[in-house]
Amino acid sequence: VQLVESGGDSVQTGGSLRLSCTASGATDRITCMAWFRQDPGNEREGVARIFIGAGDKYVAASVEDRFTISEDTAKNTMYLQMNNLKPEDTAMYYCAADPQCIGTWSGFDYWGQGTQVTVS
Q1: Which of 4, 13, 66, 76 sits at a 20 to 30 Å CA gap from 24?
Q2: CB–CB of 35/69 below 8 Å?
Q3: β-sheet bridge partners, residue 17
Q4: Comparing C-alpha atoms, which of 26, 22, 46 is closest to residue 107?
Q5: Percent of the chain with pLDDT over 90
């Protein structure tokens, strides 16, 4: 399974971005996908996750009023819509996927290379 993120950019406070993560390879193995973020000096943080095809979604409380996770199974793509961005949202955003959806942030087997979001 390969994951490729896109959509990161530099935006001003209050702006919006939509990140995409496209999966390829053995995508039939995937049942769970998630977005994480990490900036230098901080631990990786789970942002949102989705149970592929089932509609179950979870968005971290810190961003749930501004971020939305969604999927397009026909395109093997997951999205993260980010609105009203703040400087504290600045981070590298990573896509992750796993054959199991166990409702936690741990145990994801597959990772993308990340896409940078900078808010100033």
Answers
A1: 66
A2: yes
A3: 82
A4: 46
A5: 88
Separation between Cα atoms, residue 51 and residue 12, nearest integer Å = 31
Q: In the structure, how many helices (H) and strands (E) does the chain have?
A: 0, 11
d(CA 37, CA 62): 12
Contact in structure between 60 and 81 (CB atoms under 8 Å): no
Residues 6+ apart with CB under 8 A from 43: none
- The 10s digit of each residue's pLDDT in 80-101 is 999 999 999 999 999 999 998 8
With beta carbons less than 8 A apart as the criterion, state whether 77 and 55 touch. no
Residues in the chain: 120
Beta-bridge partner residues of 32: 51, 98
